[in-house]
Here is the input.
Amino acid sequence: MIILKSKREIELMHKAGQLLANCHKEIAKRIKPGVTTLEIDAFVEQYLKKHGATPEQKGYKGYEFATCASINDEICHGFPRNTPLQNGDIVTIDMVVNLNGALADSAWSYAVGDVSPQAAKLLQVTEEALNKAIEQSVVGNRLGDIGHAIQSYVEDEGYSVVRDFTGHGIGRTIHEPPTVLHYGEPNKGQRLKEGMVITIEPMVNIGAWESKMDDNHWTARTVDGSLSAQYEHTIAITKDGPLILTKQ
Here is the structure.
């Protein structure tokens, strides 16, 4: 069952989203060669605590960290680690913030130092795919319009869209209905209604879209070792258009 959010609930989620966005702005200042994702994870936990919030995914199904940190060919759910980031890496930092019971979810991919033109283009295309999906997030459209906007743009650019991981509804818990696919056909699927709050989080690969799972049973990576990027916002569907709760 899809839970429609009241204006008050959306306002509270927006406050959580703005805190998350500000945290990403601070992360952007810290991403550079030599820094470890475990250091970034510790910073996030301290930053949220300072602002009266908590990392919602810490402890979720046994997950031990405040963030997910996925590097290069890792698609999602990478563990923060002590290995220093290298010049030319790309890294996605994903987190869910709980501020007074209201949740917001956002992932952002970062260039570490000087990245290759190929990596820079992947980041650009993935972020633009998210923007095109948000444009479709209006009352009366369908979830298929969101997925189609992503898939058609990404594939026209010569990349592939990961199928194994999706966006989702969010509210009192991290994952609520509906499932938000990043591929699909226009005018298909659940119709968007005022009060829905969803995440849109396309994961885009340079090579094949298929994923494989690491032995930790969390981290997914590309089957062919190609680079992967992800950008994610939490979006409220309103009568005035999409409201990006995690806008930076």
Remarks:
- The first helix runs from residue 7 to 30.
- The mean pLDDT is 98.
- The chain is about 30% helix and 25% strand.
- The longest strand covers residues 90-99.
